[in-house]
Amino acid sequence: MKLPVAQAVRAAAIALALGAAVHAQPPAPVERVSFQEAVRRAIEKNPSVAAAAAGILRAEGLLRQARSATGLQVAGNLTTTTLNTGVDFDGNVVTPRNQVAASLTADMPLIAAAARARRNQAMDNVQVAELSAADTRRLIAFSTADAYLSIIGFRRVVDANTRARDVAKAHYDLAHELEQGGTGSRLNALRAQQQWSADEGLIEVAMLSLYRAQEALGVLMGTDGPVDVTEEPSFDVPAEAVNLLQFRTDLKLFSAEQQAAQRVLDDSSKDRWPSLDAVFLPQSIYPAQFFSPANSWRFLLQMSVPIFDSGQRTSFKVQRQASLDIARANLAGAMTQASSEVRAAREAIASGERILASARAAADQAQQVVDITNISFRAGAATNIEVIDAGRTARDNDNAVAIAEDTLRRAHLDLLVALGRFP
């Protein structure tokens, strides 16, 4: 009598655990957003985008600094002098003991080829910073879209495993009923219950993956909590070929870096050009010295000519040439990679459509097998193992459909990204 009681207790415990698993839910999302809203908010609020925008401000500050080096510079100076004793001659003060001198220096570069070259280079750096920020926004948008699609894909997996769990539970209920009625066996009931338990575990795994994707989307959007989705996005992919350098921000960035490096190298010769400054120096002294006027001014033309620097400028030119070579290699590699990504994405779409059609056909056929096997089992024409195997196969095919749909959606997104049409 103890064995049936122990089995009953064990079955009740398993059923209680399964019931708890059904009711255990991850934290609820704080909100639900559309695809376009998720991408827009991620671009606006993600810290990486803010950091890239700060890079633009820094480049603009350096540009202003470079511009100021080619403009008028005015500086004032005030000096007080106190000697231990003054100098008198024949009743006149030659050198006063206390004296105040005020002067003004106005410096205007007339010839400053190197400084003007640095100003143009700073303008290139601003453009590079702007393109870098645009590429950062593209990467954040892609990551957001990836998290959004992951939520959709994992939800499909949860639904497929839930359907399989429901079928497995219905089969267990029937096997348990037959066992209680004396026409079934304990082995059949345990096998059915085992499949039910396995499907519950798969649901938990899929729900955890779904929750992690929701958390990832929330982080990208700058939201403190998981965020759920409201729709399945549709991607309109252009069929015609496009100029990748015109649309892709990463290629634009590499191209701008090459142009900036080229300008720096071309400006190397200006480091050897002379520079000429016009300097105006008005000065006022109180009290004035005996041999000096109280108010005076001077005008200077100061020329500086580089003559010999022990190879310093040559080393700069070699470094600039290396920077240009690196920029050219980066652009060439990125162009090749971009073309490959376009071809691979188009092929992935074509292959994904075929795979999805096959997966849907297999899932439909597997569901028919489940229906027929369940009917046959009730009629005694099919075994318990056949029912379990049919349910497992149907579950796997439903998951394959979910995976194929996710793969196809991502292929469309990858093509838009490769063409530079997203976001």
Topology (SSEs and partners):
Layout: H1 2-23, E1 31-33, H2 35-45, H3 47-68, E2 73-82, E3 87-89, E4 92-95, E5 98-111, H4 113-181, H5 186-221, E6 227-229, H6 244-247, H7 249-266, E7 275-286, E8 295-304, H8 312-379, H9 384-419
Helix pairs in contact: 2-4, 3-4, 4-5, 4-7, 4-9, 5-9, 7-8, 8-9
Summarize, please:
With about 425 residues, this protein is α+β, with helices and mostly antiparallel strands.
Question: If you had to describe this structure to a student in words, what would you say it looks like?
Answer:
Helix 2 packs across helix 4 (113-181), helix 4 (113-181) runs antiparallel to helix 7 (249-266) and helix 7 runs antiparallel to helix 8. This protein has a single domain, classed as Outer membrane efflux proteins (OEP) (Up-down Bundle). It has helices at residues 2-23, 35-45, 47-68, 113-181, 186-221, 244-247, 249-266, 312-379, 384-419, and strands spanning 31-33, 73-82, 87-89, 92-95, 98-111, 227-229, 275-286, 295-304. The strands form three sheets. It has a four-stranded antiparallel sheet, with no helix packed on it. It has a two-stranded parallel sheet with strand order 1-6. Strands 3-4 form a two-stranded antiparallel sheet. It has nine helices and eight strands.
